[in-house]
Amino acid sequence: MRAQFRQVCENIAQALAESGASWEDVVQTNTYVTDMDAFFQCTEIRHEFFGPGWPTSTTLEVSRLAHPDMLVEIEAVAVVG
Fold first, then answer.
1. Residue 51: burial class (beta carbons within 10 Å; 0-12, 13-18, 19+)
2. What ranges make up the beta strands (E) of 2-53?
3. If 0-12 CB within 10 Å is exposed, 13-18 middle and 19+ buried, where does residue 62 land?
């Protein structure tokens, strides 16, 4: 999950940059994981990307995601301007 978590954050960073936004513009996230214990091993990665001021967030453990190899999915909402 750590590798997937990092990749998802990198994907979000790219989408933010292409939209003229940054992590500082993120106001809410919804995170879906297949293993909550593995998620708790990713907190420093989250801190690396979001910094000390994390947005409002919800994390849910689900039985599976859209593809059987997926372990984490993050939905981020950013407000610009």
1. exposed
2. 26-33
3. exposed
Question: Is pTM, for the whole model, over 0.85?
Answer: yes
pLDDT in tens, 26-37: 999 999 999 999
Q: Tell me the CA distances in angstroms from 25 to 4, 13, 33, one per residue in order.
A: 23, 11, 23
Burial class (CB in 10 A: 0-12, 13-18, 19+), 71: buried
* CA gap 68, 75 in Å, rounded: 18
Coil, strand, or helix at residue 2?
Answer: helix
Which residues, at least 6 apart from 56, have a Cβ–Cβ distance to it below 8 Å?
Answer: 27, 28, 29
